[in-house]
Amino acid sequence: MTSTVILGDEPLTIDQVEAVARSVPPGSDYLGEPIHVEVSEAAWGRVRHTRSVVEGLADDTVAHYGISTGFGALATMHIPVDKRHQLQRSLIRSHAAGAGPEVEREVVRALMLLRIQTLATGRTGIREETLRAYVAMLNAGITPVVHEYGSLGCSGDLAPLAHCALALMGEGTVRDAAGDLRSAGEALAASGIEPVDLAEKEGLALINGTDGMLGMLCMAIADLRALVTVADIAAAMSVEGLLGTDDVFAADLQALRPQPGQAFSAANMRKVLAVSEIRDSHRDPDACTRVQDAYSLRCAPQVAGAVRDTIDHAARVAGWELASAVDNPVVTLDDRVESNGNFHGAPVAYVLDFLAIAAADLASMSERRTDRFLDKARNHGLHAFLADDPGVDSGLMIAQYTQAAMVSEMKRLAAPASVDSIPSSAMQEDHVSMGWGAARKLRRSVDALTHVLTIELLAAARGIQLRAPLRPSPVSAAVIAALDEVTRTAPGPDRILADDIAEAVYAVADGSLLAAAEAAAGPLN
């Protein structure tokens, strides 16, 4: 069964962007269902109308940027009428100048989807046949090859979008629905799509947007919303396994500092820790002499809650950007064709950087809890490094090294890209956002966070099991069972940890571990 997303009547949501970007290609061997994209009839009417506005200017002797002039620093160059189709082709060919590794399929699909959404607003002057071809290319699972470098996050994600427009012209290289590299012309022909001969203004309309960085922002928000809940689960299990207290997570204490995310995270932790024999074993103040837990345990809701609030802020910015029509020049609601600066990626770049900071701090606290589990001086009676036979076995010692290396990398990735600017186009574009770079490093940070949290979960699962015969909470038991479906969490002789970590990472990334926790706890925030 194929789902359908209609563009043009309402802005896309973050969840829709993520779903379409990560949907399977039609007719491929991937698991899952493809998502079909369509443009509403009302949107087609707007597209036809604003195209007529642009065509009315095509033969005008007055200069109109992108229609009868060059681009960037060449905007003062008047282009004769007989060279204006060549102007658009040259724009795409020259701007398809990306270099470096190929970026992920889901990033390119998000970029294409968001450019289609802007074109469907009827503010760009695109022709109907050009937009129909673009929609068909996306629906056919044809993914242009886009490279890591080429966007400065200003004047649009120029090189990435140009490589997509190049494919629409039947030029360049793409991956077909099966993931095989092919020439764009062959792939279009195989899907019955005619290559487009670009007309006035269309080259600009296809490349002048923040679509790549916005698409990556949407996917990062979706990922981080799940991971911050996983972080709450991991933190609660660490509190349980390290004989910490859940008293500090009480709702009335959290209400004394009404940060919304903090309350949500504390509520999650209370659910995970409910009905735990391990927790009940040290409730007697005469038997337990510890007055307070370490910050990495006691302050977990404060840090994860701040991450939640940062994600919510980023989601608001993404929502505003998803409701935007980013192009230059743009056709206004009263049919003027006006230059503008809405392509500047600063709003998106800032929150991409902000999320990288938040993710790094969440990972840093997670790693500290893992380290506490492994240190015999601080783990309250557990084996050194959670090893089966310390000395003979090293347990999870080096798993923490892996965590530490990733956290250190995440701290480097948290250095903001948006504070940098290298002028381009002969100083016409003298301030740029570097938002594409911010998005690329955030993707690496999200992947590292997934690994860091997974390693904490493995440590907590093993630590909790070393507390036997005391039984953990039902939620912790469900999480341990979910992990045991893909790996082994119980103490035992050393084995290859890389395999265990990799399998557990899949369980975190695909949502199965979170689903197991919610099956026991009920819905989590």
Automatic annotation (TrEMBL):
Chief location category: cytoplasm
EC identifiers of the protein: 4.3.1.3
Gene Ontology biological process terms from the UniProt entry: L-histidine catabolic process to glutamate and formamide; L-histidine catabolic process to glutamate and formate
EC category: lyase
Subcellular location: Cytoplasm
Family matches, as Pfam families: Lyase_aromatic
Record-given protein name: Histidine ammonia-lyase
Native species: Nostocoides australiense Ben110
Lineage, top ranks: Bacteria, Bacillati, Actinomycetota, Actinomycetes, Micrococcales
